[in-house]
Design brief:
single chain; Ribosomal Protein S8, Chain: A, domain 1; 12 helices; globular
Length: about 350
């Protein structure tokens, strides 16, 4: 186990991605995001993704020379074109645009097209909170979940995120995939040779599995399904319907691919996914007013914390981030070798 500073980890990740063909700005944006995820204890979206992104760069699934740009704009709405590159720089630009437009119009929606895997969605929204605004984010991903009652993958795990600033405390940060767990957890389990709990995934024949690789080759279950007990068990209509909502928001509405049109992220070869992300930013000043909004947030927080054991969303990851900023992050030997070989 090697412990390194966050800055050193960013340099290591950026160097690996540049060796694979990413331009400096793209590599640095991705490094910031991946190391931030790792520092928050989110290994499935952290350093474990470097080898995956490097494989996509080397196999032409990502345009390493891409420079994101605003492609369409009308009032509080805009589209940023990721130009088939890694998603992070495009998402940074989209949220920056959304904040500026929300200041002018009170609310803004900025989308990203021709995109790729975007990591921890709520982290893209941190600048909105820092600006005193509410942020919501959505993304689709390669097909991993069936429609309600179906058997073959149609929707991605399609994460949903939201951030709400507080007057003094850590923002409330909500980030969840619409599958029972994020698919990256299967990737990490497969890398570490661990099994997964029942209820996370089905194999390619639609049978419940505890084998993470079989789950990646099969399909994820929507959240709320519970542990399947046999073939043909209906998956959760609630999780599947929410995945449908996200799929339409970040594909049909903006011209991005549906999840079933994108090759899996977990193979080196395949198409450029052309996925989408949507970021919605709201300025409280346009509604209840900033101070009124912050007052009401604290009323709710106090009521939540009246029960022992309640943990505010985002508090744990923020505590881990502060510890990592002070003490660095640990990198296992296999990961250390992988980062230098990527």
């Amino acid at each position: 186990m090697t412990r390194i500073t966050i800055d050193a980890a960013r340099e290591l990740v950026a160097a690996a991605l540049q060796r694979a063909g990413a331009g400096p700005a793209m590599a640095q944006a991705a490094a910031r995001a991946l190391v931030l995820a790792e520092a928050q204890g989110l290994a499935s979206h952290g350093l474990s993704r470097v080898a995956q992104y490097s494989g996509h760069l080397r196999n032409g699934r990502v345009n390493g020379a891409a420079v994101p740009a605003v492609r369409r704009s009308k009032g509080g709405a805009a589209i940023v074109d990721a130009q088939e590159g890694l998603a992070f720089g495009a998402c940074e630009l989209a949220v920056h645009e959304a904040i500026a437009r929300a200041r002018e119009f009170g609310i803004s929606v900025v989308d990203v097209v021709n995109s790729h895997h975007c990591g921890v969605v709520v982290d893209h929204l941190r600048p909105a909170s820092a600006a005193g605004m509410v942020g919501l984010g959505f993304s689709n991903s390669p097909a991993a979940m069936p429609a309600a009652g179906g058997r073959h993958p149609v929707f991605g795990t399609n994460p949903v995120a939201a951030i709400f600033p507080r007057r003094d405390g850590v923002p409330l940060m909500i980030d969840l995939s619409l599958s029972e767990v994020a698919r990256g957890k299967l990737m990490v389990a497969a890398q570490q040779g661990r099994s997964i709990p029942p209820g996370w995934a089905l194999d390619a024949s639609g049978q419940p599995t505890t084998d993470p690789q079989a789950g990646m080759d099969g399909s994820m279950l929507p959240f709320g399904t519970g542990a399947p007990t046999g073939p043909g068990l209906a998956n959760s209509p609630k999780g599947a319907m929410l995945a449908l909502v996200v799929e339409l928001l970040v594909s049909a509405l903006i011209g991005a691919n549906f999840g079933f049109e994108a090759s899996s992220f977990f193979v080196d070869e395949g198409n450029r996914p052309h996925l989408g992300q949507t970021f919605l930013v709201i300025d409280p000043e346009a509604l209840a007013g900033r101070e009124g909004f912050l007052d009401r947030v604290e009323v709710l927080v106090r009521e939540m914390l009246a029960d022992d054991g309640v943990r505010l969303p985002g508090a744990r990851r923020e505590a881990l981030l502060k510890a990592a900023q002070a003490d660095g992050i640990e990198v296992g030997e296999a990961m250390w070798r992988s980062l230098h070989a990527a």
